[in-house]
Specification:
The chain is α+β, with helices and mostly antiparallel strands and 199 residues long. The protein has helices at residues 5-46, 104-113, 154-164, 188-196; strands spanning 122-123, 139-142, 147-150, 168-171, 174-177. It has four helices and five strands; from the N terminus they run ααβββαββα.
């Protein structure tokens, strides 16, 4: 290499160095841009996305516990021993009819034997008690023609007969009631005559 070629070589080296420097600046931004965009892309997508809410509430220590099923309402424990109700109410105890007084069934049989109407007889003695009419009678049989009441004493029978007024007839402890009967007034004396004949 001669001295004349030195300036040309120097110019060439300067041109290569300048070109390399400029080319490096152009290349760096272009090569850095994808890297920056690629590295910043996940950050951009990660920022807007909120954490998925968890169905499990955190505990006091911050650790999540598994979800528990809804609790059933607390059962109230009975206080004291459990009492059972009786399957059926206790039977009603009615007062006894007085000795010598005819029973309601006996009166109905006597009416029938005399040819009087006593259709559809029903023993409703349970109505004498407090759960029924509460009249305090001993026996009660109702028919379509007349209702026969037998009381434990003549005083009770007399009080009821007076309450029913002209719609009843009393003989001792037995009361004939015509309030719900279909017996014509003219025929009532026949029933009363049979009752009087029973003693």
């Amino acid at each position: 290499m001669t001295i004349r070629s030195l300036p040309a070589v120097g110019i060439l080296l300067v041109a290569v160095a300048v070109t390399a420097g400029c080319g490096g600046d152009d290349a760096d931004p272009s090569s850095a841009a994808p890297t920056a965009s690629s590295s910043s892309a996940p950050a951009a997508t990660a920022l807007p996305s909120a954490p998925t809410p968890s169905a499990v509430p955190p505990t006091a220590s911050g650790a999540a516990t598994p979800a528990a099923p809804p609790a059933a309402p607390p059962s109230v424990a009975p206080e004291g021993p459990t009492q059972r109700r009786p399957a059926s109410p206790p039977p009603v105890v009615l007062p006894q009819r007085p000795t010598g007084a005819p029973g309601a069934t006996q009166v109905i049989i006597a009416f029938k034997a005399a040819g009087l109407k006593v259709s559809h007889p029903k023993d409703r003695s349970v109505d004498c008690g407090p759960d029924g009419l509460g009249l305090g009678c001993s026996e009660l049989i109702a028919t379509d023609a007349v209702t026969v009441y037998v009381f434990p004493d003549e005083t009770s029978a007399s009080d009821i007969a007076e309450t029913w007024g002209g719609q009843s007839y009393r003989r001792g402890a037995v009361v004939l009631n015509y309030l719900e009967a279909k017996t014509p007034a003219a025929d009532r004396s026949r029933y009363e005559k049979v009752l009087n004949g029973l003693g």
